[in-house]
Amino acid sequence: MSELTTIARPYAKAAFDLAVEKGELDQWSEMLTFAAEVARNETIVDYIGGMHSAEKLTEIFVSVCGEQLNELGQNLIKVMAENGRLKALPDVCTQFLALRQEYEKQIDVDVFSAVALDQAQLDTIAGKLEARLERKVKLNCSVDETLVAGVVIRAGDLVIDNSVSGRIRRLSDALQS
């Protein structure tokens, strides 16, 4: 897995730099997301793993993607096929989207709560996180019925556990030390 991440990095960076230069971040995000889904398809995965020429792989891949890829997107597929790197396309997409979030100063935040939160609570959480992280925050909310009460917030490496079970665990640790 880490090998594909390493392989994908220069392709993602090149695509990102080109997208920024051309002002086409949205278009490239859509193209790479679509192409990554095609690359995950079982039939395509089997075909990529087979003994086919780069030209044939490019032709098949581009024909499946159709209108979703512009000329530069097709060129990326061609270069990756020539280098035997099409299997890394989903990782290219993931890294491209991460570069875009960093560039646009955005971060996805997962919020787990015992009950569904109302809009005022979500606005409060988003506001405080934006101030703390100095980024635009996109909340991904879900209900976790294993929590008795409170919330657990995950933003990258940052975890804020403000749940009752988290508080009890911290209290227990403090009493034991």
TrEMBL record:
Cited InterPro entries: ATP_synth_OSCP/delta_N_sf (IPR026015), ATPase_OSCP/d_CS (IPR020781), ATPase_OSCP/dsu (IPR000711)
Topology within the bilayer: Peripheral membrane protein
Entry superkingdom: Bacteria
PROSITE patterns tied to this protein: ATPASE_DELTA
Annotated Gene3D superfamilies: N-terminal domain of the delta subunit of the F1F0-ATP synthase
Coiled-coil stretches noted in the UniProt entry, renumbered to this chain: none
Pfam families per UniProt: OSCP
Keyword terms: ATP synthesis, Cell inner membrane, Cell membrane, CF(1), Hydrogen ion transport, Ion transport, Membrane, Transport
Cellular compartment(s): Cell membrane; Membrane
SUPFAM superfamilies on file: N-terminal domain of the delta subunit of the F1F0-ATP synthase (SSF47928)
Family, per entry: Belongs to the ATPase delta chain family.
Function (record text): F(1)F(0) ATP synthase produces ATP from ADP in the presence of a proton or sodium gradient. F-type ATPases consist of two structural domains, F(1) containing the extramembraneous catalytic core and F(0) containing the membrane proton channel, linked together by a central stalk and a peripheral stalk. During catalysis, ATP synthesis in the catalytic domain of F(1) is coupled via a rotary mechanism of the central stalk subunits to proton translocation. This protein is part of the stalk that links CF(0) to CF(1). It either transmits conformational changes from CF(0) to CF(1) or is implicated in proton conduction.
Name the UniProt record assigns to this protein: ATP synthase subunit delta
Organism: Enterovibrio gelatinilyticus
